[in-house]
Amino acid sequence: MRASWTWMPRAVPVSDAELQPGAEPISPEAKELATSTRRVVLVALLVLAILSVGLGIVWQRTGLWNPSWGAPERVAVCPSDALRPANPQETKVNVYNATDRIGQATATAEALKERGFRVGSVTNAQLPDDVREGQGVILAGPDSLDRALALQRQMPKVAIKLQPERTDGAVDLVLGDSFRGLIRPDRVSMAPGVPRCEEALFGG
Fold first, then answer.
1. Is the confidence at residue 12, as pLDDT, over 50?
2. Phi and psi of 14, rounded to 5°?
3. How many CB atoms within 10 Å of residue 54?
4. What mean pLDDT do residues 84-105 have?
5. pLDDT tier, 26 (very low <50, low <70, confident <90, very high otherwise)
6. How many CB atoms sit inside 10 A of residue 47's CB?
7. Mean pLDDT across the chain
8. Where in the chain are the domains?
9. Distance CA 181, CA 93 (A)
10. Can you name the CATH fold of 88-187?
11. Which of 4, 20, 72, 148 is deepest in the core (most CB within 10 A)?
């Protein structure tokens, strides 16, 4: 009895040289070089990522923070009508020292705490030279003007700089060379009033 069978096609391995007539086969050394190159690139990218994270942490902890002073994408203006200052207990203030006086931000932050303000970050910052020579600046978003006004009442000579895109609800106080502290508590008014802003302080 004759056995029946069915022929099945089989895949036959084909080399690169056979697929591409005239092409030279890739040597093992070239393949190893390509593999090594890919490994070097991946390791370099990993090292750069680790360095970026590390520098970010060091940057924050050492106080080498520089706010963005560039011109805003959209315009925000101070209100022309009277505004009621927020309660200090509802106002979070980040205090930054742009002067060469060590401890200026810490001392100011402690004074604000004694008056009921909630203090966030306390570290160093940078200001343009022409601004640093003054009292400093209060930075706030459009929705935090009442909090900025509450802070401004503690230091009436420090102007407010609006940051149109800001939405975190906090207020930044960046101290300049001429800053000499808060005014006396008995001179602080919490009555409604118009904030004093400087829209063009940094070219915005």
1. no
2. -125, 130
3. 10
4. 96
5. low
6. 10
7. 79
8. 23-62, 88-187
9. 15
10. Alpha-Beta Plaits (3.30.70)
11. 148
Of 139, 126, 124, the residue nearest 201 (C-alpha): 139
Q: Distances in Å between the alpha carbon of 157 and those of 73, 175, 198, 200? A: 27, 12, 12, 16
pTM of the model: 0.62
What are the structure tokens assigned to 73, written together?
């994408």
Check the CA dihedral 186-114-59-162 and report its sign.
negative
* Comparison of pLDDT for 28 and 113, the residue scoring more: 113
Q: Is the pLDDT of residue 59 over 90?
A: no
Question: Who's near 164: CB < 8 A, 6+ residues apart?
Answer: 72, 73, 74, 75, 76, 141, 142
* Model pLDDT for residues 122-174, shown as the tens digit of each residue: 999 888 887 788 899 999 999 999 999 999 999 999 999 999 999 999 999 99
Contact 181, 108 (CB under 8 A): yes
For 16, the token pair is 């690169």
Structure tokens at 90: 């509802």
For residues 64-84, one letter each, b for 16 or more C-beta atoms within 10 angstroms of the residue's C-beta and e for the rest, the string is eeebebeebeeebebeeeebe
Burial tier of 168 (Cβ tally within 10 Å: 0-12, 13-18, 19+) = middle
Give phi and psi for 137, each to the nearest 5: -155, 150
DSSP 53-101: HHHHHHHHHHT------SPPSS-----SS-BPPPPGGG-EEEEEE-SS-
